[in-house]
Design brief:
The chain is mainly α. Helices cover 71% and strands 2% of the residues. It has 11 helices and 2 strands, in the order ααααααββααααα. A two-stranded antiparallel ribbon has the order 1-2.
């Protein structure tokens, strides 16, 4: 898939313009978005992703469009897990609702910048050493096991990273919010506001999730342009999802199990691809392994949609069963 420089530049300008417009609007008018505003923005972003996929199919090939949609869905589902941590951070630092949009959008910009860096490094490593797929595959399988064993619990607390604690110790700070300002003057002294600490916490969370998500999408497509655009579209609309889902995230009790299965599938796909491209001398004498299956893009998309669908359906079924048990006073089995 050859993407010329003009296409790259136009795409990057469009992404930056959307984020810049969103950021300046929120900073100037901090507010709690209405459900109508969130649904409208989410519909626009999702529609734009759909149109982009159609354009990829027309301008290039159908398989690349399928790879884009698979990557977009995967990154969007992994981003939902980000939201749960963001909820904990906002609750831990008591961020006023009208300022949460600003913190989230800055976090999204940081996530996009970090993921772009990881994507460039990952693409360079893959082009130079095909055995990197083994490393990505092993990392995703380990992450799948780790994520699958975790549980979302409503009473879970956010544990501040050491870096955040160091900020409190090293920098003079205040517990008062001064709008969206990162530093403010109190009693003649310049102090760090809680918003600065919140952004640092969100940034550290972004690093953690970028390390997980970038190898995952490389298991779906190795086209840097598709990888970057799938991440960009997945992050757009994340802020709206945060306010729409809210406490509903606690009802997705099987989210981590579903993400574990999803990452496990992509990890195995990466291993098969590594065997197909094998250059390691101690595996089949450095020759490609003939028996390793080459999973087509349409099958990957089908599996991803099925895993996400079953995860949501099972979570909703569990939520309804729990609600019925609570209403009837019968303990859940």
């Amino acid at each position: 898939m050859y993407v010329n420089t003009t296409t790259w530049v136009i795409s990057m300008i469009a992404v930056v313009a959307v984020l810049a417009f969103d950021l300046q609007r929120i900073v100037r008018h901090p507010h709690v978005p209405s459900a109508k505003e969130n649904w409208l923005a989410l519909a626009i972003y999702s529609g734009a992703a759909g149109l982009f996929g159609v354009w990829i199919a027309i301008a290039y090939e159908n398989q690349y469009a399928i790879q884009f949609f698979s990557g977009w869905l995967t990154e969007k589902s992994l981003s939902v897990d980000n939201l749960f941590v963001f909820l904990l951070i906002m609750a831990r630092f008591g961020v006023p609702r009208q300022y949460q949009q600003s913190a989230l959008l800055v976090g999204i910009v940081l996530a996009l910048v970090l993921r772009t860096g990881f994507i460039l490094v990952g693409a360079a490593a893959i082009n130079a050493f095909s055995w990197v797929f083994y490393l990505f595959g092993a990392f995703l399988l380990w992450t799948a096991w780790k994520v699958g064993r975790q549980k979302h619990e409503e009473g879970e607390e956010y544990h501040r990273p050491r870096v955040v604690k160091m900020v409190h110790r090293v920098m003079p700070s205040t517990d008062r919010y001064h709008g969206t300002r990162l530093i403010a003057k109190e009693g003649g002294r310049w102090l760090a506001t809680p918003m600065l600490v919140v952004l640092i916490a969100i940034g550290l969370t972004d690093v953690m999730f970028a390390v997980d998500s970038v190898p995952a999408i490389f298991g779906i497509t190795q086209e840097p342009y598709l990888v970057l655009m799938a991440n960009a579209f997945a992050l757009m609309g994340l802020r709206q999802l945060y306010f729409l889902l809210g406490d509903l995230l606690n009802r997705l009790v099987y989210l981590n199990a579903g993400l574990g299965v999803l990452l496990g599938f992509i990890g195995m796909k990466l291993f098969f691809h590594a065997l197909k491209e094998n250059e390691l001398p101690f595996i089949n004498g450095g020759h490609p392994v003939a028996w390793a299956p080459d999973l087509p893009s349409w099958l990957s998309l089908t599996v991803i949609v099925t895993i996400l669908g079953v995860t949501v359906a099972a979570s909703l079924w569990h939520d309804r069963r729990t609600a019925r048990s609570t209403a009837s006073g019968t303990p859940e089995p």
